[in-house]
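To close the chapter, one final illustration. This time we ask the reader to focus less on the individual chains and more on the assembly as a whole: which components sit near each other, and how the overall shape emerges from the parts.
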Amino acid sequence: MTKTPPYYAVIFTSKHSNVTDGYNEMTQQMETLAKQQKGFLGITSARDHIGITVSYWERLDDITNWKQQSDHFIAQKKGKSTWYDWYDVKICKVERAYNFNAPETTV
Amino acid sequence: MTKTPPYYAVIFTSKHSNVTDGYNEMTQQMETLAKQQKGFLGITSARDHIGITVSYWERLDDITNWKQQSDHFIAQKKGKSTWYDWYDVKICKVERAYNFNAPETTV
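The assembled structure is written out below.
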């Protein structure tokens, strides 16, 4: 994700319940669906005791559209309260971005 | 983290190198140090194949101050290129936030 700011990010932080049935299939399908959306820029996830998923979007409107579609998708698949003890969503404007890459080592 | 927006977030996404010596001690000390900083609001982390750490701050200036202090701290401890193949930093303004808590189940 090397786009120059400004763009937008959704930070989704969550704690899983004990019910994981169908969860992995749902997230894979959600990710596939997200990538087809207008304004989608990228997505990264990590999970240990909690999960953090950050998706990146060109405009705020793209996030609103995606929220409507993803809420509908999850509702169709299974109640969201089945999979999560809690979750937290933050909608952000990315104002600055920089990165670091270690120099390649030759063997 | 239930503060009403606007406030600021730093999304730190990273890929570890094979060198982990001293890393856990450093992150614990960094977290302790962050919590003592002016404007610090909270921090969450998750790691599997990549790591995502999000820290939250009251103002952009707080992030600038923390960056200067944390760069110095890491430089004192060990070259950052030792621990990371790459990392990516995004400075964001949190514009909206909402959360969900599953209803408590009584047994």
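The mean pLDDT of chain B is 86. Strands of chain B lie at 7-16, 40-47, 51-57, 84-101. With these observations in hand, you are ready for the problems at the end of the chapter.
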